[in-house]
TrEMBL record:
Xref: HAMAP family: Undec_diphosphatase (MF_01006)
Subcellular location(s) per record: Cell membrane
General function of this protein: Catalyzes the dephosphorylation of undecaprenyl diphosphate (UPP). Confers resistance to bacitracin.
InterPro entries, alphabetized: UppP
Additional remarks: Bacitracin is thought to be involved in the inhibition of peptidoglycan synthesis by sequestering undecaprenyl diphosphate, thereby reducing the pool of lipid carrier available.
Origin species: Tigheibacillus halophilus
Alphabetized UniProt keyword annotations: Antibiotic resistance, Cell membrane, Cell shape, Cell wall biogenesis/degradation, Hydrolase, Membrane, Peptidoglycan synthesis, Transmembrane, Transmembrane helix
Membrane topology summary: Multi-pass membrane protein
Protein known as: Undecaprenyl-diphosphatase
Length: 267
């Protein structure tokens, strides 16, 4: 019975992480609330790294064609300086620039972020997310991949840094910034989730020694949680892409409003 409970705990937390990662409601915030409500936790970083890698793999699968194109054209531009490959090269450079703020501030503020990872913080930040999503609910930008500027990349990167605060959705923060800057919905989505790749990959790479050195980690439940997170992220992102295309972001604003108020009132 105990083994079943442990497996169920891993599956549920893996699903929550995977499903909420690509949608603008904050995966970290939902995990904090779930752990608080049901007194469920998993010690150590190995579990968190694995479920985030599951989300990363799902995003790599969905955007595989874009990634292959960007890689080919970036290499082609570096070798030949052909102008037709320049927009994809600049896109990659801007992704790298936008990644830096979150990496730097995440390293510097790691301990302080842990100190504010509480339900009250999540309740407040979900209300902030609600307002931000409501502001952009009807925006329809015109900028495509090749129209992104250095200024756009820096602002979107700084928005991703704000998402270090528990309850602020990473995808939500970057999408709000991108759409306020005039990016088309499809371009905003692509840039936002491409931006997730180096951050998640870098964190996973740095955590490999911790995972391998964690003698207490339960590998079978962990791998199952990884697969659950992968599948949940894949289908949640596909679902969210359809919602973005139909311009239904207001429903996420409603959800964040209701969830934020309930957390502040009852927790």
């Amino acid at each position: 019975m105990e083994n079943f409970y442990i497996l169920l705990k891993y599956i549920v937390l893996g699903f929550i992480q995977g499903f909420t990662e690509p949608i603008p409601v904050s995966s970290s915030g939902h995990l904090i609330i779930f752990r608080h409500l049901f007194h469920v936790d998993i010690k150590g970083l190995s579990f968190e790294v694995l479920v985030h890698l599951g989300s990363l793999l799902a995003i790599l699968i969905i955007y595989r064609k874009d990634l292959i194109r960007l890689t080919k054209n970036t290499c082609h531009f570096l070798l030949t300086r052909k102008e037709h490959a320049a927009p994809d090269f600049r896109f990659v450079i801007y992704l790298a620039i936008a990644t830096l703020p979150a990496g730097i501030f995440g390293f510097l503020l790691e301990d302080k972020i842990g100190d504010i990872s509480k339900p009250f913080t999540v309740g407040v930040t979900l209300l902030v997310t609600c307002v931000a999503l409501w502001i952009i609910r009807n925006l329809r930008g015109k900028k495509q991949d090749g129209d992104i500027t250095l200024k756009d990349a820096i602002i979107i990167g700084l928005a991703q840094t704000v998402a270090l605060i528990p309850g602020i959705s990473r995808s939500g923060a970057t999408l709000v910034a991108a759409m306020l800057l005039g990016l088309k919905q499809e371009t905003a989505l692509r840039f936002s989730f491409m931006l997730y790749i180096p951050v998640s990959f870098g964190a996973g790479l740095l955590s490999i020694p911790d995972i391998l050195g964690d003698a207490d980690f339960l590998w079978i439940p962990g791998i199952i949680a990884f697969l659950v997170s992968l599948l949940a992220t894949f289908y949640a992102l596909k679902w969210f892409m359809g919602i973005m295309a139909r311009g239904n972001l207001k429903y996420f604003a409603y959800y964040c409003l209701a969830a934020g108020l309930l957390i502040l009132i009852f927790m």
